[in-house]
Amino acid sequence: MNLGDPELAEKYASLPCDGIGLMREEFIWTTYIHEHPLYLIKTGHPEKVVNQLAEGIRQVCQAMAPRPVTLRFSDFKSSEYRDLKGGDEFEPYEPSALLGWRGASRYYDPKYIEAFKLECQAVRKVREEFGLKNLNVMIPFCRNIDEARKVTGIMAEQGLARGKDFKVWLMAEIPSNIILADQFNEFVDGYSIGSNDLTMLILGCDRDNDTVSHIYDERNLAVRRAVRHLIEVAHKAGKTVSICGQAPSVYPEFCEFLIKSGIDSMSVNPDTVKFTKKLAAHIEQRILLDSLTGRGRQEAEDLDW
């Protein structure tokens, strides 16, 4: 299940989900903290970042325990960070913030690294001080292998090295994540496909632009081939693949494609958890019946529906 507001964790904990596949850290910033992390560091209150983040994350991990929770590190764009108190002083004005200073590129940047370290400290506090070891993390918008190396290195220095009970996922939302998956494998335990940005970047189509929005479609063959390639390359290295976009719950045929391609899990919004789980079970039953009767083999291998 995808989740934003930690206050809703208790409410949704009874849903038949296997954990939180995407917890959006941004909601904690906008709902509880309200101030830019670099502004809080400058004014002498870095502990507010650690404590508030940790408290929000704790609510979710505690409500879902022992089921796993995957926290996506901050993925604000510069225009969104600027809306936080003190943000004007630290944020650039970018002509295309969507493709600018966001995700992994911030974490190792000398201008932002101290703020990222606070995020790491909050995660460590939840896992060690609160004892909630069901918390794992995800790195968003990581453009190349060097960024993956730098970010995971900083995390390890902050006490967040990958291990048996701590997993690091990569948000697979850029074509380079797919094309270089065999190399990204070295730094992560698995992937979660961000189908919104991935579709937009593969098709070169701004989904928020009404002029070309009709072209935007996660079901496009180019997107499906990218998804299947990632699953195959990841599985060869023993990595897992999930998806946290809404396509599986919006398009039943896309859900079927994912299952036939061997995806390990799907994470959807709370209001579609029951529907998607029933849909997945129905598809899996049909695949099993087809395998027993010898039917559907070609369909399972075909990229087209």
Structure report:
This protein has helices at 9-12, 26-33, 37-42, 46-64, 78-81, 104-107, 113-129, 145-157, 175-179, 181-184, 195-203, 221-236, 247-250, 252-261, 273-293, 297-301, and strands at 2-3, 20-24, 69-72, 135-139, 168-172, 190-193, 240-243, 265-266. With 305 residues, it is α/β, with parallel strands linked by helices. It is globular, with a radius of gyration of 19 Å. The model has no long low-confidence stretch (mean pLDDT 94).
Q: How are the SSEs ordered, and which strands pair?
A:
Elements: E1 2-3, H1 9-12, E2 20-24, H2 26-33, H3 37-42, H4 46-64, E3 69-72, H5 78-81, H6 104-107, H7 113-129, E4 135-139, H8 145-157, E5 168-172, H9 175-179, H10 181-184, E6 190-193, H11 195-203, H12 221-236, E7 240-243, H13 247-250, H14 252-261, E8 265-266, H15 273-293, H16 297-301
Parallel strand pairs: 1-2, 2-3, 3-4, 4-5, 5-6, 6-7, 7-8
Features:
16 helices; 49% helix; alpha/beta; single chain
Describe the structure in brief.
The chain is of the alpha/beta class.
Structure summary, number of beta strands: 8
Please state the CA-atom Rg, rounded to the nearest Å.
19 Å
Quickly count the helices: 16
Query: What general form does the structure show?
Result: globular
Largest sheet: 8 strands, parallel
* SSE succession: EHEHHHEHHHEHEHHEHHEHHEHH
Q: Average pLDDT value?
A: 94
Low-confidence stretches: none
**Helix content bin:** 40-55%
